[in-house]
Backbone:
C-alpha cells in the first residue's frame, strides 16, 4: 500500500473526468476542467517531491496528453533526461495548460519520428505532458505500427520511434492504459 492512499489514489490517477483530449483533435479541451480535475487538484494539494515520484518508461510507445512544455525544440539527449525534465517541470502559468504539472512525457529517438500530425518531430524532441490518468495513459502508438495505420500514413515506419513514460507516486502501478483516439487518426 502506498503512503498516498493505495487503491483510492490508484483509481483517482486512472480516471478521466474531462474526457479524452484527442477525441476531436483537441478542439473541445477546456483548461479550467483540467485545472479542477481530481488528478490536478490532488497533485497540487499533496505537493509531491521528486523523491516521491517513480518514472515508468515504455520504449516504442507514445502516450497522449496536453503539452505543458512544447516538444519541438525542447531537445533532450535521452528518454531519462526527458523524464528528469518532467520531474523538474514547474508550472509557469503561461499558455492554456500552464497551471498543470508534468506527469507524462514522450521522447523522439530517431532522426525523424512519425506522428499523424502536421509537425516535423526530430531526434531529441521531449514533450512534457499532463494527463488526467497517468496510471492508465491513453496510448497513441505502441510497438509495431498497425498495417491499418501504415496504409493511412504511407511514411509511417514499421515500429514506433517514440519512447514514453509517466510519473507516478511511489507504490502506484502503471496499467497497460487504453488506446487514444489518435490511434485511429
Residues:
Amino acid at each position: 500500500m502506498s503512503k498516498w492512499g493505495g487503491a483510492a489514489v490508484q483509481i483517482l490517477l486512472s480516471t478521466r473526468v474531462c474526457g479524452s483530449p484527442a477525441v476531436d483533435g483537441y478542439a473541445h479541451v477546456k483548461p479550467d476542467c483540467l485545472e479542477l480535475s481530481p488528478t490536478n487538484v490532488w497533485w497540487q494539494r499533496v505537493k509531491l517531491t521528486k523523491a516521491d515520484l517513480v518514472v515508468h518508461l515504455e520504449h516504442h510507445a507514445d502516450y497522449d496528453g496536453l503539452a505543458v512544455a512544447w516538444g519541438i525544440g525542447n531537445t533532450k539527449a535521452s528518454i531519462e533526461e526527458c523524464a528528469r525534465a518532467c520531474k523538474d517541470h514547474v508550472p509557469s502559468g503561461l499558455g492554456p495548460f500552464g497551471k498543470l504539472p508534468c506527469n507524462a512525457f514522450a521522447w523522439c529517438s530517431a532522426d525523424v519520428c512519425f506522428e499523424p500530425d502536421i509537425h516535423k518531430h526530430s531526434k531529441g524532441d521531449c514533450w512534457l505532458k499532463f494527463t488526467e490518468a497517468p496510471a492508465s495513459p491513453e496510448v497513441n502508438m505502441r510497438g509495431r505500427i498497425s498495417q491499418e495505420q501504415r496504409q493511412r500514413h504511407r511514411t509511417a515506419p514499421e515500429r514506433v520511434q517514440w519512447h514514453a513514460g509517466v510519473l507516478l507516486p511511489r507504490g502506484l502501478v502503471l496499467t497497460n492504459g487504453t488506446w487514444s483516439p489518435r490511434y485511429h487518426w
